[in-house]
Amino acid sequence: MRSFGSDTRLPTLAVVLDIIRERTTVSRVELAEATGLTQATMTHAVRKLIALGFVQEVGTARSGRGTPRRLLGLRPEACYMVGIQFDRFSAVGVVVDLAGRIVAQREMPGPADREPGEVVPEFAAHVEAMLESAAVDRSAVLGIGLATYGPQDRDAGVLLTPQPTPAWLGYPLATTLTEATGLPVVIENDATAAGIGVQTLGTASSSFAVVFMSGGIGSGVIIDGHPYRGATSNGLELGHISVDALGERCGCGNRGCLDTIAGPMAIAGRALEDPALSARLGLGGDPLSDFTRVGRAAVAGDAAAAALIEVSTQTLAVATVTLVNLFDVARVVLAGNAFAEFGTTYREALQDVLDRSVFMRHVHSVRVELADNISHAAAVGGAVVVLRNLLESPNLGERAALRPGGEDRARQAR
Amino acid sequence: MRSFGSDTRLPTLAVVLDIIRERTTVSRVELAEATGLTQATMTHAVRKLIALGFVQEVGTARSGRGTPRRLLGLRPEACYMVGIQFDRFSAVGVVVDLAGRIVAQREMPGPADREPGEVVPEFAAHVEAMLESAAVDRSAVLGIGLATYGPQDRDAGVLLTPQPTPAWLGYPLATTLTEATGLPVVIENDATAAGIGVQTLGTASSSFAVVFMSGGIGSGVIIDGHPYRGATSNGLELGHISVDALGERCGCGNRGCLDTIAGPMAIAGRALEDPALSARLGLGGDPLSDFTRVGRAAVAGDAAAAALIEVSTQTLAVATVTLVNLFDVARVVLAGNAFAEFGTTYREALQDVLDRSVFMRHVHSVRVELADNISHAAAVGGAVVVLRNLLESPNLGERAALRPGGEDRARQAR
User: Fold this and answer.
1) Which domain holds residue A332?
2) Rounded to an integer, what distance in angstroms lies between the CA atom of residue A383 and that of residue A378?
3) Strand-pair partners of B333
4) How far is the C-alpha of B376 from the C-alpha of B382, rounded, in Å?
5) Could you write out the DSSP letters of every residue in B359-407?
6) Angle at Cα B165 formed by Cα B163 and Cα B167, nearest 5°?
7) Which chain A residues are Cβ-neighbours of B3 within 8 angstroms?
8) Cis geometry, peptide bond prior to residue A76 (ω within 30 degrees of 0)
9) CATH no. for residue B101?
10) Are residue B185 and residue B228 in the same domain, yes or no?
């Protein structure tokens, strides 16, 4: 069967909800204009969102001589979602409300070399603590989105890689966290999540690429508002494209992978090979912290540190040109905690190289930007994926009745 | 405005027509099942296709105890489309019928260093000759699709590159060929056209990548049945991704571009630098012919030729791993006349490297194949784009009445 079938079940509710969120208040007519949906489809979608308790009428507006239009607005407190972005050496968690606003956030340790059986209960404890700190009723939480590295089996909620330890390969990550928290759990690629987070946190932009750098380097593409997923959501592995065809063999099977040359672990490793630099900066912690020290020193004028960061920026720029030349986007957004302190250095280097090198630069320019809330964008995106999955679910009506944001709640609110 | 609006105008007619073509005969119920469309949408689409004269009822079939189902089939002779794929040194033209079958084809000279004002009338003459040889009534021809290199402005029907001469940059290619032939003309990226041609000529596969090699190297991605287009249809420039970050500056602005190392012109150029090889193979013609001689000699066991082709296959393999690691496809199809004689050499080399190196190989395998009708796939795709544009046109009804495949014709046929 053609996959055309799935295209016809477009995520109408998610799109309508996004536009209401972006515009704060909006009439049905404006919604129909903004989406290109028919009045009937729009009316149906709005009715469903009101029944879910997600949207309510918030007043009227008169435009010109016409009859006043009833305005719709979100009920931000209707539900909450949890997002956790983690890689080997770091993890951040957020709780966001229906409007995408962060109501709680915390940094947590990454797995390092620990087994998943030890890490998952720790994540669960952090989730409980975040919900408590935000005073969010657990019954109002739709679920948890785990944004992390690949390859993944999103449907099964498992990682398909023996990183950081062999036990992680095929470990029932989603199921175990669900058992520990009582909340539905989905997994998502971290860079794609960052893209969804950028859509949520920033102004609407229908098409852009994300370059994501945390423990490793990844990328995401949002095209016409939807994440590009390919066959199995395991594409966009920017960290594992070759920037040196004759380079060293990477664990992934490829040679001269970007991540092994430009990634935080590679730069931290090279810094440790320089005893003077290493001593000067007090290196020897986890690689992401060491990388941050090198980056700080580079910004402060340390020549040896700057040379290492230059390798990273220039090589990442080459790979970003590849990304743009293949996906044809006019905007590249940098996200991830490795960009948090000196993202501007990367932004400027990438912009400079892209301005000179991208294939379609005479057709359109390509703008490089830093994400808002650069360290949390992926976690926010992970949280939003939980909501999107619910809105795209075919048995949404059924769940609506069970959910606290559903009709009972909506009635209470009237 | 969100581009969501355009998503809601899915090319229903094109999808329905494709399925009727693939299955030869099909009932409305089977069509609804195959597309996931509602019975109402399907009935509407079929009615429109019958009104256009593209589809007719061809009999009934009884399945089980139910009432007999009326079967639908194409009217292949309802209309014809012309496709021309050209690059600097070669051009091929085809005329295809509504079923996608080639009813005429011919090779023609590429532009070489000639001006567009000289080449376009030549193309027009070839079109006339093909239509005559196939005895196709000009009034039954929907238009011409030009499949060629980029960057392009598809809407304006112009190339945005000064190749092969400065006069080609912004030259009104589509308009001029329309004036010369009286037929509507569209332009399309050659590799994307090859993808559409592969869909048309082969069995249906909803997602795959194309690596296209003719005068240069390009790529295309068909995902869920639709070409990936990015912001301006100027992505997927595989020939201009860097496979050597410190390599030579390419005319495009990037360094170490695949095309300058692995492409036919690069290989032909390197062969000419070897006087013995050059003399042995009688090189010195146009680069594409020289490349073909080198490839033939490699297959025949010439060590110097084989070494050059090895550079091409191995470097193309590195770039193809990048393509797959970014787009996550399970199938890569090779198309274009540069693969015509020794595509198997490339297929085997790419399969070998991909099996070892692609990031998601433990999630799914990636199969490398040669396109059916490898030299004409892009021209066929160019032709099919003309039909798809018509079927996606909002004023299709209006055109239907004017077009020979329209209601008048359908009446005559009854």
Assistant:
1) 203-370
2) 9
3) B210, B369
4) 10
5) TTTTT---EEEEPTTTTTHHHHHHHHHHHHHHHH-TTHHHHHHHSTTSH
6) 105
7) 206-207, 224-225
8) no
9) 3.30.420.40
10) no
Q: Does A3 touch chain B (CB under 8 A)?
A: yes
- Which residue, B51, B74, B97, sits at the end of a domain? B74
CA dihedral B209, B210, B211, B214 (to 10 degrees): -170
CB atoms < 10 A from the CB of A386, how many?
26
Instruction: Indicate which of A1, A3, A4 best probes the interface with B, i.e. most B CBs within 10 Å of its own CB.
Output: A4
The answer to whether residues A221 and A228 touch, using CB atoms and an 8 Å cutoff, is yes
Please calculate the CA angle B190-B193-B199 and round it to the nearest 5 degrees: 150
Question: B235 vs chain A: nearest CA distance in angstroms?
Answer: 4
The verdict on A211 and A324 lying in the same domain is: yes
Closest to B290 measured CA to CA, from B268, B272, B317: B268
B1 occurs within a structural domain: no
Single pTM value for the model:
0.92
Got the DSSP string for A168-229? GBT--HHHHHHHHHSS-EEEEEHHHHHHHHHHHHS---SSEEEEEESSSEEEEEEETTEE--
Burial of residue A311 (number of CB atoms within 10 Å: 0-12, 13-18, 19+): middle
B190: closest CA among B174, B206, B213, B167? Answer: B213
For chain A, what is the domain count?
Answer: 3
| pLDDT tens-digit series, residues A94-103 | 999 999 999 9
CB atoms within 10 A of CB B63: 11
Q: What CATH number is given to the structural domain containing A37?
A: 1.10.10.10
Q: What is the mean pLDDT of chain B?
A: 91
A84 and A51 co-located in one domain: no
Residues B266 and B251 in one domain: yes
**Distance separating alpha carbons of residues A220 and A223, to the nearest angstrom:** 10
If asked whether residues B244 and B356 sit together in one domain, one would say yes
Tell me the average pLDDT across A143-162.
96
Q: Which residue in A has a C-alpha nearest to residue B244's C-alpha?
A: A244
Contact A163, A216 (CB under 8 A): no
pLDDT tens digits along B185-206: 999 999 999 999 999 987 656 8
Stretch among A404-408, B41-45, B343-347 having the lowest mean pLDDT: A404-408
Q: Which of B42, B74, B106 is the last residue of a domain?
A: B74
Same domain, A328 and A252: yes
Cβ contacts from A onto B, under 8 A: 229
